[in-house]
Specification:
eight-stranded mixed beta sheet; PiggyBac_TE-derived; sequence-specific DNA binding; alpha+beta; PGBD; 8 strands; PiggyBac transposable element-derived protein domain-containing protein
């Protein structure tokens, strides 16, 4: 008889998820550009983790995926220095060899400033959009002054020790991006 972990909301599905992740990681990762994002899978049944569907965090073309189960007691006890989303990224990247210089791309949902520093130390090149309140008080220009300068203007700052560049760009809306892989040059004009 199998006993289910009471803290794991996906305990009944874990025998399906875990072998798929193990098989996907078995032969390694063959791409150097990896995207990490979240995906909503339509689900109409009853489950405590349901948020208008099943929410899955995934890496690239499903090399690895983690179903979202909400905050649980174990995660609350084990507060991480990079937060829950940083932990998700490291769990998804666990199959990636740190010496292979992977480029990792993600959106602002996964990107605190501290995560870019740690990924740099682990030899991962990271690029992603970032919320302004997660930039570690980086001295980027305020939105009002960028608005006065018009569309297509930008402001950047960085930390040379880890080759981190942060940039705020004004288009239809403001976009703030961070990268420990790419710099601002060469600049080109886009339509």
């Amino acid at each position: 008889m199998v006993t289910l972990d009471k803290d794991d909301k996906y305990a009944k599905l874990r025998p399906l998820f875990d072998p798929v992740n193990i098989r996907n990681k078995q032969f390694g990762i063959f791409r150097h550009n990896l995207a990490i994002d979240e995906k909503m899978v339509p689900y109409f049944g009853r489950h405590s983790c349901k948020i208008y569907g099943a929410y899955i965090r995934r890496m690239a073309t499903f090399f690895s995926f983690i179903p979202y189960a909400g905050a649980n007691r174990k995660q609350e006890k084990q507060k991480s220095s990079v937060g829950l989303e940083g932990d998700v990224i490291f769990e998804l990247l666990s199959a990636a060899d740190e010496q292979s210089n992977y480029r990792v791309f993600f959106d602002n949902f996964f990107s605190p400033y501290k995560l870019f520093k740690i990924l740099h130390l682990k030899n991962f090149f990271a690029t992603g959009t970032i919320h302004e309140n997660r930039t570690n008080h980086c001295p980027l220009e305020f939105a009002k002054s960028l608005t006065k300068r018009g569309r297509r203007c930008y402001n950047s700052a960085g930390e040379r020790s880890i080759n981190l560049t942060l940039m705020k760009w004004n288009d239809n809306a403001f976009v703030t991006a961070a990268s420990n892989n790419f710099s601002l040059s060469p600049l080109t004009i886009a339509k």
